Amino acid sequence: MSAARVTIRAALAASQHRSLRACSLEARATSFDLGAPEYRAPELFLAPRVKGLPVEMPGIRR
């Protein structure tokens, strides 16, 4: 695997962890360190479910 691919995977994993952590903070739930098993478990559950789905971006507000 190329270094660029590893870097992209690491960045995607980190952004998923940040998203889950942000949800925890917004819900005023316990937040864990990035890379904690509490964040990796939902990521492993969601990964096969979203595989192949198009990426949806929020609309631009003016």
Structural commentary:
The protein is mainly α and 62 residues long. It has a domain at 3-45. 61% of the residues lie in helices and 0% in strands. The protein has 2 helices and no strands. It is flat.
Structural key phrases:
0% strand; mainly alpha; 61% helix; flat; single chain; 62 residues
| Helicity, as a percent range | 55-70%
What gap, in angstroms, lies between the N and C termini? 42 Å
How much of the sequence is in beta strands? under 5%
Question: Which structural class fits the helix and strand makeup?
Answer: mainly alpha
The radius of gyration is 14 Å
Mean pLDDT: 72
Number of strands: 0
Biggest β-sheet description? none
Shape: flat
Number of alpha- plus pi-helical segments: 2
Low-confidence stretches: none
Order of helices and strands: HH
What is this structure's SSE topology?
Layout: H1 3-26, H2 37-50
Question: How is this structure best summarized?
Answer:
The chain is mainly α. It has helices at 3-26, 37-50.
